[in-house]
Amino acid sequence: MPEGRGSRLHPDRLRAAADLLDQAAAAGDKAAGRFAEARVDSTPFGISAQARELAARWAAALAAREADACVLGDATSGLAGRLRMAAESTRSTGFRGRIAVAP
After folding, report:
1. Considering the chain, what is the average pLDDT of its residues?
2. Cα–Cα nearest to 96, from 3, 14, 2
3. How far is it, in rounded angstroms, from Cα 51 to Cα 33?
């Protein structure tokens, strides 16, 4: 396999990568919370129809970003779990092969 096209499987590296993905998932969850807070904080009262329309659009955009952050956080957390499972399986089998990675 050409150099740079594969990576040695090391359980410690897989676990370290999983830890970093967990941190990224936590950041996604935090971002989702901030989008939710911003939606609540930007609720208009007693303003013009145009301003209410703009606020409604803003709230919809924030809700969409909140949903995106939740999905991304869940997917990232799932990937971290799969890496941990791979780390355990390579340790238990003693596999020291190569895995292909995208260029």
Report:
1. 82
2. 14
3. 24
